[in-house]
Amino acid sequence: MAQETIEGINPTRMELLNLRNREKLAVKGHSLLKEKRDALIMEFFNILDRVKGARQKAEEKLKEAYKDLTAAQIIMGDLAVQKSALSVKDSVDVEITSRSIMGVVVPVVDSKIDSKTIIDRGYGFSDTSVKIDEAAKKFEESINLIIELGETEKTIYLLAAEVESTKRRVNALEHIMIPKLQNTVKSIEMRLQEMERETFVQLKMIKSSIEANAK
Questions:
Q1: Which residues form a coiled coil (predicted)?
Q2: Considering the entire predicted model, what is its pTM?
């Protein structure tokens, strides 16, 4: 099987020098990209462990919250629970910024959820069950956990995409670009050596012809 080379390259010493420089840059770039890929993969798995824990924690807290909400609905009735829910004001303040992980811009979510008492939530003691207050408190805690989970899952998604992109670039350099450059360098070196031999033979023939004519 013929080795692939870069087409349209003239076999000159200048081109040979340029190709050798390109080969050095490609090898250096390949090494740097491999280091970046390995660091990204390590960061990916570190955050993945956090995601698993955060998801489990959020699911457990939501399960507890819905359990208390169901108990409140049984005790108070659906309409009374809905009325209590409508009296509660929004209390979530979210600010989204960003940071860089190995050149990958990922979100940083800063959330503030005010912790409320029964009085703060706006419904009274007499016509509500303690279960609705417990449910409300657990839903507030769940929101914090869900926001944190959203941040880490988005980070995981972005890192995974960058890992895949970097792997493709590493493979392209390793299996396509660098071999092509190396093969082209060898091809030009062989062609230049062949041209030198041809020139040497021609000069030798000219010299022999001149000597023959002189005799």
A1: 48-75
A2: 0.73
